[in-house]
Amino acid sequence: MKKRNLLFSVILCAVTLSTQAQTTIKEANPRWSIEHALEWQKENGWVSGANFLPSTAINQLEMWQASTFDPKTIDKELGWAEGLGFNAMRVFLHSLAYQQDPEGFKKRIDQYLSIANKHHIKTILVFFDDCWNPNPKVGKQPEPKTGVHNSGWAQDPGRLITDPKDFAALSVYVKDIMNSFGQDKRILLWDLYNEPGNSNKGNKSIELLTKVFEWAGQTKHVQPVSVGLWRWDFTELNAIQALNSDVITYHEYEAPENHLRVLQTLRSHGRPMICTEYMARRNNSLFSNVLPMLKKENVGAINWGLVAGKSNTIYAWDTPMADGGEPKLWFHDIFRKDGTPYKPEEIEAIKKETGK
Questions:
Q1: 87 with 116: CB under 8 angstroms?
Q2: Inter-helix orientation angle 206-217/164-181, to 10°
């Protein structure tokens, strides 16, 4: 997901804030103790994997709607992930797919989890998202825009939610999914909200962020919850995210020296950490330099992108290619659609760290 260059001088302020934010959700969402979180980390070991969207889907809706759900491709591509030694995938849900067909949607989640489990892969499920296109619609999804990164990715819910009826519908969605799968050992973690405040929303996302923590706290689940830090000057949002997450998650697409400073600061929370987005080749965020560092620091590593496909994430955020040609340097992704690697040496670098 797109991330702007930010000043590290504001990190400390962002993650150590304020008794005001600490008390926002405490009663509704009793946070795991540090001891509980560390026991969870010990049980699950070092987490490595990718953000996963099958190459045949342009966005979350195309992945999950009944007409385009593609278990054959999912099985094939998760098999490639297993071959790398990856043990976790981060996967985005979408509330519109649930509202269109609640029971069918849950059956497809179960089917996905069964496929992933067959490949010895646990799943991080993501609910809401403030990135990219703000007006998602059910039905046939758009075709990719030539040479444009993530041209069809859909925000969830998209527009800002202010009507109590809309909040009520989203509450039903979150609680139903979490109660249905809250005891499921195939799920590693609930990632409640991707990059809140993105797309110029800023603090307007606080209400939904607060509520999703509250809704999660009202369900019966054995997995930890988290919302990843991603923009260090979003002081109020960061405080709510970090101080209500059982496990600290974050995004960092910069080079190892900058990335290391981020994770060293986040260690002040004393909790297990997972970097749920990294690896942008143009930025010198690579498997060869970041992945070994994360393993050494015992921080989970989930890169953006597995197989190049309709998401067009081989193209960089801000540099579209009008002719749709293959960029000399891919931005994200590991494999071509036929399963051959973009860079064979990256496969070896990954396997070295995963022990495959």
A1: no
A2: 40
Question: What are the angstrom distances between the C-alpha of 291 and each of 170, 320, 329?
Answer: 36, 27, 19
Q: What are phi and psi of 102, to 5 degrees?
A: -55, -50
| Range 8-354: architecture per CATH | Alpha-Beta Barrel (3.20)
This prediction's pTM: 0.94
C-alpha 250/C-alpha 276 separation (Å) is 6
**pLDDT above 60 (res 301):** yes
Please tell me the distance from the alpha carbon of residue 125 to that of residue 111, in angstroms, as a whole number.
Answer: 14
Helices (H), the chain: 11-16, 19-22, 34-44, 60-64, 71-84, 95-100, 102-118, 164-181, 206-217, 235-244, 256-266, 290-296, 344-354
Q: In angstroms, how far is the first alpha carbon of the chain from the final one?
A: 28
**166-187: per-residue pLDDT in tens?**
999 999 999 999 999 999 999 9
Q: What is the pLDDT of residues 69-101, one digit of tens each?
A: 999 999 999 999 999 999 999 999 999 999 999
